[in-house]
Amino acid sequence: xxxxxxxxxxxxxxxxxxxxxxxxxxxxxxxxxxxxxxxxxxxxxxxxxxxxxxxxxxxxxxxxxxxxxxxxxxxxxxxxxxxxxxxxxxxxxxxxxxxxxxxxxxxxxxxxxxxxxxxxxxxxxxxxxxxxxxxxxxxxxxxxxxxxxxxxxxxxxxxxxxxxxxxxxxxxxxxxxxxxxxxxxxxxxxxxxxxxxxxxxxxxxxxxxxxxxxxxxxxxxxxxxxxxxxxxxxxxxxxxxxxxxxxxxx
Length: 250
Prior knowledge:
The protein is an alpha/beta fold.
């Protein structure tokens, strides 16, 4: 059977999370939120009564979404938070300050660690840019998330808040496997570097730059220099050619 794994890596984990933006005002923030979701492997976006009825197709929205146009294409617009939460079993409101009589407030990472082990279909609810969520919307949720920030200035842009929450939630769900970096076949290996060092050592002795009776730390320092440079095989050949020419000229 042919390998059908995409060239860019394994598929994202199943998406069981909904991101809800309540009354978003700025098209750019909707696009930024879609992009933030996309990079963390989430696609279910619902807007509640956005200020612009056509916000999903606004030029600024599309521009800020970058390569997350598919998230915007699959997004829904509803009129109430109750509609947006249909089909979910656990809703987390985002708010800077706890509300009287509201659900308990947690730091996202703390709450997500326990939530990820459960069977819930989770909704993450974000409020309007200027006012945040209304009390009635917070009361509809099971938990309130407060992102730890500098007490002197805790205001987060909507897109930034979505990115932070999406990252912490993805990490709680297990994250993404780090793709092993494919070695560059053009890089010089340790043997090539050793050969270059030996060649340069002979050259430096030949031109009286290096005293073999008192070499000090010159060669180890050159070795570290070459390691930092991450030379290619072609570059090693060039440097050995230079050393050869120096000796011949000498």
